[in-house]
Design goal:
291 residues; alpha/beta; 8-stranded mixed β-sheet; two-stranded antiparallel sheet; 35% helix
Length: 291
C-alpha cells in the first residue's frame, strides 16, 4: 500500500525559504505550541475545518456552524468533511489533504522551469515535517531523484536518528531557534530547547547545510540575552550559513480564529527599521547574518 501524508498546502513561487524560487510543502502536525504560531492550522496531525468569512453568503444552509467553530474544532474528520460539504459557496473548507509523495512531487515539478532558472526547488515546512518523518523522507528522496534542490524547515524537536536518516536527501535545513533561556523556551513553546540544541550541534558536526532561523517577537524574545545567545551559536558552529531573523507577523491570529481554536493573542508587528536594528545588534555581538 502506498503511504500517504497529510498536507495542508503547497505554496508556489516562494523566495524566502531556501535558495531561488521554491515550492513550499506544508505538512500537518507539530510537537510545539508556540504562543505566536504563524501556521496554527498545521498544529494537529488531523484535518481541520475553517470558516472563510469572505466566501459566506449568509444563506444559513450550514446551520451557522461558523458561530460554533470552537465546538467544531474537536469534531472528528468525517464530521468536518460533512460540515464543509454543507456550504455551496466554499465558506467552510477542510484544511488537510492526504497525498502520496509522488503526487506532491508531481505538483511541485510544474515549477521546474523556475527552479532551473533560479536554482530553487522544494522546501518542506509545517507544522513540523518530522511529525511525518517517513513521509517527509519519501518526498525528499523522490524530489532528489528528479534532480530538485531540497530544503526542510524544522523546529529541531525530533529524535536525532530521524534527522540522520533524512540528511542524505536534504540540501539545507532551515533550523528554528526560538529562545535561548530554557525556561522561557518552555513558556513560549511548551517544550525544552535542549534536544533542539543537541540535534543542531550534531547534524552540524556531520556537515549538514544549515541556516539558523530566529523568529523574533517584540515583548517576548527581543532581548539582549537572546540576541547574545544567537550570536554565540553563530560563532560556535562555524559551518552555519548564517542567521536569518524572522520578524513576527499577525496572520496566525486570523487563521487561529478561522479554525475555531481561538487561543492566540496578538503581538506588536515590528517595523523594518527594528529588524535592521536587531540584525545590527547581533552582528555587533559577533553573529553572522545570512544574506
Amino acid at each position: 500500500m502506498v503511504k500517504k501524508g497529510l498536507v495542508f498546502g503547497i505554496q508556489h513561487f516562494s523566495i524566502h525559504d531556501g535558495d531561488g524560487i521554491r515550492s513550499n510543502v506544508f505538512l500537518k502536525g507539530c510537537p510545539l505550541r508556540c504562543v505566536w504560531c504563524h501556521n496554527p492550522e498545521g498544529l494537529r496531525r488531523d484535518i481541520d475545518l475553517q470558516y472563510i468569512k469572505n466566501n459566506c453568503r449568509g444563506c444559513g444552509r450550514c446551520g451557522f456552524i461558523f458561530r460554533n467553530m470552537e465546538k467544531v474544532y474537536g469534531a472528528g474528520r468525517e464530521q468536518k468533511e460533512t460540515y464543509a460539504a454543507a456550504c455551496p459557496y466554499g465558506a467552510l473548507a477542510v484544511v488537510g489533504e492526504w497525498m502520496t509523495a509522488q503526487e506532491v512531487v508531481d505538483e511541485v515539478m510544474q515549477d521546474m522551469a523556475f527552479f532551473e532558472e533560479s536554482g530553487g526547488g522544494i522546501t518542506l515546512s509545517g507544522g513540523e515535517p518530522m511529525m511525518q518523518a517517513e513521509f517527509a523522507g519519501e518526498v525528499l528522496k523522490t524530489a532528489k531523484e528528479k534532480g530538485l534542490s531540497t530544503a526542510m524547515e524544522t523546529s529541531g524537536c525530533a529524535p536525532l536518528e530521524k534527522y540522520l536518516e533524512l540528511m542524505p536527501y536534504v540540501d539545507e535545513f532551515l533550523w528554528d531557534y526560538k529562545e535561548t533561556d530554557e525556561e522561557k523556551h518552555k513558556t513560549f513553546t511548551g517544550v525544552s530547547n535542549r534536544r533542539i540544541l543537541e540535534n543542531l550541534e550534531e547534524i552540524h558536526r556531520r556537515g549538514a547545510g544549515i541556516v539558523l532561523r530566529c523568529p523574533i517577537i517584540p515583548g517576548l524574545n527581543d532581548t539582549e540575552e537572546h540576541f547574545r545567545g544567537i550570536a554565540e551559536i553563530s560563532q560556535k558552529l562555524k559551518g552555519l550559513k548564517g542567521v536569518e531573523l524572522m520578524p513576527y507577523h499577525k496572520f496566525g491570529v486570523a487563521k487561529d480564529q478561522r479554525i475555531g481554536r481561538g487561543k492566540q493573542r496578538e503581538y506588536r508587528v515590528p517595523t523594518e527599521e527594528q529588524k535592521k536594528e536587531w540584525e545590527h545588534r547581533i552582528t555587533i555581538l559577533g553573529g553572522r547574518i545570512f544574506s
